[in-house]
Amino acid sequence: MQSKNKIFIGALAVVVAALFWSLDGIFLRPQLASLSPTLVVFLEHSLGFIILLPFLFIYKSELKKITKKQWGTIFWVALFGGALGTTFFTKALFLTGFVDVSVVILLQKFQPIFAILLSAIILRERFPAKFYIYTTLALIGGYFVTFKNPSSINFGSATTMMAIFSLLAAFSWGSSTTFGKYSLKNINYGLLSVLRFGFTIIIMLIPAIKYFSTLPSIESGVWRTLIIIVFTSGAVAMYLYYYGLKKIPASLATLCELAWPFSAVIFDYFFNHNILSATQIIGAIVLVIAVTLATRLNKTKIISGIVLTGNNNGEKTGARTANLDIGLAKNLAKGLYSCKVDLNGIFYRGLLYYGFNSLTNKDCLEIHILEFNGNIYGKKITASTERYLRFPKRFKNVEKLSEQIKKDLAQSFNE
Hints:
Strand content: 5-15%
Order of helices and strands: HHHHHHHHHHHHHEHEEEEEH
Radius of gyration: 25 Å
Distance between the termini: 37 Å
Shape: globular
Helix content: 55-70%
Number of helices: 15
Number of strands: 6
């Protein structure tokens, strides 16, 4: 029960943060159009830093635990998630002329795609073939979302520039999510939030200085909006998001974040009386579904079953494997994965392969357990996939297969 409550509270925190972000783009940030996007980002992070400052003193002992690599990722989160992402997003909103503001928010659904691609570049991962199909569908959906009349486009128009800045924001925030999860490993979410805001202020200080002369002329209503942003979509939403992210799986967080685009369309209608065209609605549906499916491909899959008696082909290739019923892999994309193996409560690293077996000329599901050489026939084994390493391959002879297995093992041991 406690675990379910923890997940519910975490999911609720992410949904509330998403609703705050939706209100920000649709209702609050348009009221700051008289300011430069650069100054907006600097001021909202400065005010947010003041609100979050107590966390720096409460958790100051944890600062010593932060490694150099984590300091680097926190800086990346501040640069891309705080400075660049928010600046691009604000610029995109201002370019809409506050018509179809929800389009900017819908295009943020590309964030998971960018996050997965960046993780792949850093970790040198490959993708199942379906990932490229879903990504292509997402791009098509994004095209129809962007342009109200997709058959008549002016690529030099404000709409095109809005789409470019929106996608730049999606990339920035997507990369921020990737590094943010790494930063959260042993850092309190409150401390991470205040560090992110603090670094963002430092980054934005130089480009914002030239606008400081305009500060005395900022109207009281604009200051009021900035303060509301801090207590909703700014510092508070960021705290709620990191709080929720630490309590729920990434796959559930992705679903909870769908509250952002869906509520944006509704809020845009009621606050600004804007409604999407039929092609934009269809594009939005395609975009959200395609990104959701692409994200699910990156989700951990659990395979659990009894080890079957094989043909001792592992002796020929130099890598013994545990053979499982191929029916267990019906929802798994074919290919080679790194995995974590649970054998009688003891965990090992391993390689899981699902696909064509060149020795038997048929599909197979097998697991090679690293640094293990025991007899496990008839025993239950559970494997949790981690990274997708490569596509299935066909080999003309045992020698070629053995060479590939050696490469796979070398890659796994070097991780």
